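Chapter summary example.
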Amino acid sequence: MSVGRCILWTVHTQMVLDLPWRDHPPVGSLAAPGVVTVVHVAAGHGGPRVVSSLDDAADQRYEDAAPVRAIPAYRGQRSLPGWWWSATTGGHVVFESWVERHHIMEFDRTPGVTGISGQPFAVVWTEGSKRRSHVPDLFVRYGDGRAAVVDCRPADRADAEFYRVAAITAGVCERIGWDYLLAGEPEPVRAANLRWLAGYRRPYVRVGSIAERLLAAVASPVPLLELARSVGDPAAVLPTLFHLLWAGALHVDLRRPLRDDTVVGRADV
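The structure predicted for these 269 residues follows.
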């Protein structure tokens, strides 16, 4: 496990972020054999299935797409699917596992992200006489128009076939002009901290007057509980403080457990 930074390998560049995830090895790109199409379900309940060529796919709003396939749910299953309420979109994003949920959380608080969808489309191609397909886990849209396609899987559960399909998907993304990312299992402390802060992500948690006083009080780094007490009753102040940490207006080292003495600073300092 790499701690401190995560390397997300894309088909264009190596992106280094302050996210300590268990890394996948670099993935190249393979050209999919035969004709390749991208199939998605238009937004809305019972929307039509839309089949796009790679030339047309770049113009589709996959961040608004409905899940292209249903996530199975059954007694005793290994993964734990569900729906994540996104503070970015105000809607829900489907996830198939807690690993996917974690990475949705990460993108939900990443500056510049404007849209997130789960199970967004199927990449369909042929190998000989067989029809093959792959459904990526996430589609992420940025405000500048860029997009990223994400597959989430713990590195110790990824085999040669997974990486082969990933390379084909990376090749498709390269042709369309998207980044392709492989995201592994998150570092446990960071994941626990984000789950806690996510409980305060909804806009109604933020009390405007308390937020202004908190931001004004952080002229220099200060312990978390001391900061809350400097503004008022911690029971009333802490929800807004946690919301500001989630939103990135305040900063802490998420690699360490959140505690009363965790040092809080301004994100813009």
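To summarize the output: Residues 188-266 form one domain.
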